[in-house]
UniProtKB/TrEMBL annotation:
Pathway: Nucleoside biosynthesis; alpha-ribazole biosynthesis; alpha-ribazole from 5,6-dimethylbenzimidazole: step 1/2. It comes from the Bacteria. This is Nicotinate-nucleotide--dimethylbenzimidazole phosphoribosyltransferase. Its EC number is 2.4.2.21. The active site is at 315 (proton acceptor). The keyword Transferase applies. One of its GO terms (biological process) is cobalamin biosynthetic process. PANTHER family: NICOTINATE-NUCLEOTIDE--DIMETHYLBENZIMIDAZOLE PHOSPHORIBOSYLTRANSFERASE. Keywords: Cobalamin biosynthesis, Glycosyltransferase, Transferase. It catalyses: 5,6-dimethylbenzimidazole + nicotinate beta-D-ribonucleotide = alpha-ribazole 5'-phosphate + nicotinate + H(+). It comes from Desulfurispira natronophila. HAMAP family: CobT (MF_00230). GO terms for molecular function: nicotinate-nucleotide-dimethylbenzimidazole phosphoribosyltransferase activity. The lineage of its organism: Bacteria, Pseudomonadati, Chrysiogenota, Chrysiogenia, Chrysiogenales.
Amino acid sequence: MLQTIIQTIESPSAAIRTAAQARIDSLAKPLGSLGRLESIAAQVAAISGTITPEARRKCTIVMAADHGIVDEGIACAPQEVTAIQTINMLKNLTGICALSSSSGARVYVVDIGIKAQISHPDLIERKIRPGTANFAQEAAMERHEAEQAVLTGIQMVQERVNKGYNLIGTGEMGIGNTSCSSAIFMALTGASADEAVGKGGGITDEALALKKQVIAAALARHQPDSRDPLDVLAKVGGLDVAGMVGCFLGAAHSKVPVVIDGFISAAAALVACRFNPLVREYLIPSHRSAEPGFTHIMQELKLEPLLHLDMRLGEGTGCPLAFGIVDAALSMLNTMATFDEAMINRDYLVDIRP
Ligand SMILES: O=C(O)c1ccc[n+]([C@@H]2O[C@H](COP(=O)([O-])O)[C@@H](O)[C@H]2O)c1
Ligand SMILES: Cc1cc2nc[nH]c2cc1C
């Protein structure tokens, strides 16, 4: 099932991209003067298969899960904050909720592996297991659980696309998830702990040194196979990250653009691209996370984030900001006059020559 989806992802239309770029070049402005808005408009056109892509219906899918690695004392907050913040998401009180309301986007919250049980009518309950195991001691999860989490992410996107959403954001909530994201990045690329590991939500210098040591030792112990993304996810991954991998694969498979949020989301995007490199064509990176490994992942993916705002909250908070930029880019493509159309306005000129 997963293999079929991965293998049937198609490239966006190169012909439509060229035609959209030609239209953008014909608009009444100096060539290239709307910068990245131009490439984003052409990218969304190519993905949508039309040079006049309709206005976007936007939502962010937040994957919430717990991480056994927090037992090592290397996370920013107590584990229960995952559940508490998930409830706050459902009550519309978190950063992602506040930023989304200002951009007209919905937030969907998925329990893909929270350790606690939450009862709320708006929570999408898809718990694979109540948190991962501590990957410093044993594999984070079974291979079939990692696969199930990826499939869940794919299904979450397919359901939103069926409801009419055509721009998807990826978010997460999981205390300890910068540790597994760093471990995944190191396992896939061979990056060093100094390049890949940062302070996450905020830890002391001593805890950072310990975090690097714990992650390096876990990778030496488990020896995840860099050519097998499911092996990497199972041994040192997280249920939230695996769910987000599914969101990227699902979006590419359904031919909708998908926004990368911060460091955890970027690590998931990297995994998705290892499953199928065509996924990259569907990615829109929102902002540069202050987590140091983020920049290295962008280099690996040959992507450049749109915004530099010193953000490092996660939750999907970069997505609503990127949504606003995509909206603006499509408005340019759909409503701006061409040079020829603009020249008609010569008729309004009054001849003031003596
Ligand atoms: O996305 C980011 O760039 C980002 C960077 C640092 C921390 N976070 C958030 O903080 C939590 C993980 O931090 P930590 O230190 O517990 O691994 C998790 O809930 C993330 O949403 C997110
Ligand atoms: C309060 C809090 C909110 C968060 N949102 C994402 N990660 C978080 C970590 C903490 C600690």
